[in-house]
Amino acid sequence: MALDRLRGQEAVRDSVLLPLRYARMASSPWAYLRGAAAVMAADLAAAPHSGLTVQMCGDAHILNFGLWASPERQLLFDARDFDETLPGPFEWDLKRLATSIYVLAGSERLGESCAGEAAVAAVRTYGKAMRAYAGMGELDVWYDRIPADVPWRGLTSEFTQAATDNIRKQSRKRTHHGTARQLVTEEGGQRRISLDPMKRLDDGLTHEQRVRASEQVYDTYLASISPHLRRLVDRFRRVDAVRQIVGVGSVGVRVWLHLLEGDSGRQPVFAQAKQATASVYEEFLGPSDFANHGERVVVGQRLMQSASDIFLGHMRVDGFDYYVRQFRDMKIIPSGPEIAGYLPQFAAACGHALAKSHARSGDPAAIAGYIGKGNAFRDGIVRFARDYAGQTHADHADLRTAIATGETRAAERGW
């Protein structure tokens, strides 16, 4: 049962936040899909697969693609979430992407026709891009990047200009300086992080526990990054740290937001440490090669992305694995309403980005050959996605029933 799969994840999450997790997932079929990667993993594993292995994203739903700043401060379009990453069959990512398109289209009331057009666009573009990568040299594949304007190409000039202006505005707001203006207050001459109470959790740690955790953070994180980067990190000191409540799928995992300040006094940096647990696919594909699940996430991200956060690292604190990344740092995450007006174009860009990521770690010629030049593969993925979207609605209804009968406890609000 789907509910049993969800309950199976409770042991590795903070029990205080489990009612909030179920409340958020119950809010809509789309929210349910985002939180139910474990359910879909089991269903995917129950059917035959291609045997063509790539570094899977593991949670390649359509809103897990967006704009990402390279170390050179260029905005690129790429996959952005790697909590479930693991080597596995390439088509599992594609099936989750296409399914998410149908579920999101339903949430935004776009109709079956638009959902089908967008799902076809994603799978067709994936195949077209993979054929192109099959004809490229290894370094050309590795260096390929998708510019930020790709999702809007071919749209009207007015729409493109509006999207470009919005991206420029968001990228300015989501720098470290922009985030500091939003989240930092000063108390007695000391800078402090001021989060919305609904996004903050009291950690309940004593001063001694905080000191011990801080020592583990620095010792284990510094050991995970390159020596030249340690020279940079050494120029920052931690000013404050708070626990965050984030996302839908991530509710319950432990997340810390750290405010760092450079020796110059002019450079605030926000670093987020997020708990990493076993990928939901390890039960079916075997355990990760890495002893630390934070390292699994970091390596998977670097394999899939054309350019990754220079601060990516991993650590272990009080027995929990974490990965570390910059918070926001020009990351622009789309919302359902924002992409509803151009869903097929955005879906096609996601298909391209997924193909690029898979070509970096897999065999693009073998995958292109498996897909073929006809429509059979595309039609099969789209048919699966449409049917699984229906199953998602049914599973979501079961969760709501379990909450209504008291079988599953949910918070009164999903926040």
Automatic annotation (TrEMBL):
Pfam families the record matches: DUF2252
The protein, known as: DUF2252 domain-containing protein
InterPro entries membership: DUF2252
